Amino acid sequence: MQCPFCQHPDNRVLESRSAQAGQSIRRRRECLRCHRRFTTYERIEFVPITVLKQNGDRQLFDRSKVLRGIVRACEKTGISALRMEAIVDEIEAELQQRVSREVSSLEIGELVLKHLRCESEVAYVRFASVYRQFQTMKDFVETLDDLSRQEASNNIPIEGEYCQCHESPAHTVAIAD
Fold first, then answer.
1. Cα distance between residue 21 and residue 73, in whole Å
2. Are 162 and 168 within 8 A, CB to CB?
3. Contact call for residues 3 and 34 (beta carbons, < 8 A)
4. pTM, to two decimals
């Protein structure tokens, strides 16, 4: 494992522990040359998923692209980096459970929106604005109206209630009265 800072190939493992609900192993490492510390994850290698892009191109699923989009949408929302990683893990697990090894980029975007709706309305709208290519203020208003309708029909959980997106307790979702 190369050091991400100095590319030296030798390092030592300081700590190992189970991560992501037992789906991977988290290792804290220290470079033997520059002595900087970094984290690596070891996870099961799944059968590759092919993503069908809107322009017709095909490429392998890249979880880092999904994570980058989620991180941008979640900036200054209080959602932790660990929770964002967990969202990507959940999305990847959903895709791995499918029979088809090919998925459209549109389906991935909708999965991200489904998960973000349970986490933060702000993150949801930010992601939707890029993913759905909002062009006018009307696009934002329509999305906000949809969220309001969903909230009115109790589809958005209040803190402590069950999140319908994950069928588990809501993740720090609080809606002000």
1. 24
2. yes
3. yes
4. 0.60
